Amino acid sequence: MSAVFNASTGATGASADSTAVKSNGLGVSDDMFMTLLVAQIKNQDPLNPQDASQFVTQLSQLSQTSALQSLVSQGKSAATQMDSLQTLLLGARVGSDVAVRSDSVELGAQTLNGRFELASGSSATNLVLTDSLGQTHSVALGSRGVGINTFSLDPASLGLAPGRYAIAVKTDGGETPAVDITGKLESVRVSGSAGVVLKVANVGEIGSSAITGFNSPTG
After folding, report:
1. How far out from the chain centre does Cα 42 lie?
2. Is the pLDDT of residue 27 over 60?
3. For residue 2, what is the DSSP state?
4. Are 158 and 150 spatial neighbours (Cβ–Cβ below 8 Å)?
5. 202 φ/ψ angles, rounded to the nearest 5 degrees
6. Could you tell me if residue 154 is left (phi over 0), alpha (psi between -120 and 50 degrees) or otherwise beta?
7. Which secondary structure element, helix H or strand E, spans residue 144, and what is its range?
8. I want to staple 171 with a disulfide (CB 3.0 to 4.6 A). Which of 88, 167, 175, 198 is the partner?
9. In the 8-state DSSP scheme, what is residue 146?
């Protein structure tokens, strides 16, 4: 007996299957796949139909892809919620002094306060500031011991013009520790590309990950 394939019936059956698959959680975003699947069934050779296991494999792959897309979407949603929560928490700290790790500072009339940590003692420690023209200004910090060391400098008394400077600490042993600058947290905002962005006095805008410490709100 010869095999007979009814294109109309096949399409209707495939349409019913499409509805069933959607109801099982694959969703309307998979309409294109189901359309292609129906076309594939309608146009196959009725005397040599495609192995049904191939359809099952395709559906399985689609299900895995949909699950992965769902996880990505959930991850983005969770990240957005975390940014919102972080913004609220940091917003409550506006007006506080914060310590932020930075390799540059914005000098003006205010005194610049900061800290750094040494693994080895240094008898000749220098704070090196480099302006936008590449000119370096070295400020002697004297002998410094192992551990956390603080510094404070008055730009005006040192003859440093207002502006942006690169900042670094150098020791007689060649150590170049990271520098944390203390400044008032002036504002908090959320950027679509950069996440939570803070504006800190003497530093400018930075990411929240640069924060290394908090002090009590000023009164």
Report:
1. 48
2. no
3. -
4. no
5. 75, -5
6. beta
7. strand 136-144
8. 175
9. S
Rounded to the nearest 10 degrees, the angle between the axes of helix 52-91 and helix 31-42 is: 170
Q: Which CATH class is domain 80-99+183-219?
A: mainly beta
Show the tokens assigned to 28: 């309307």
The span from the first CA to the last CA of the chain, in angstroms, equals 95
The better pLDDT of the pair 173, 211 is held by: 173
Q: Which amino acid is at 177?
A: P
CATH of domain 104-177: 2.60.40.4070
Residue 184: helix, strand or coil by DSSP? strand
Percentage, residues of the chain above pLDDT 70 = 58
Contact between residue 167 and residue 102 where contact means Cβ atoms under 8 Å apart: yes
pTM over 0.85: no
Percentage of the chain exceeding pLDDT 90: 39
* CA neighbor of 18 nearest in space, from 40, 47, 3: 40
pLDDT score of 53: 67
Which ranges of the chain would DSSP assign to H, the alpha helix?
A: 7-21, 31-42, 52-91
Place of tokens 């600490």: 169
Rounded to whole angstroms, how far apart are CA atoms 72 and 68?
A: 6
**Tokens found for residue 6:** 């009814």
Supply φ then ψ for residue 39, to 5 degrees: -60, -40
Domain segments of the chain as ranges: 1-44+51-67, 80-99+183-219, 104-177
Structure tokens at 34: 């189901």
**How many angstroms separate the Cα of 102 from the Cα of each of 123, 141, 142, 150, 214?**
24, 19, 22, 15, 15
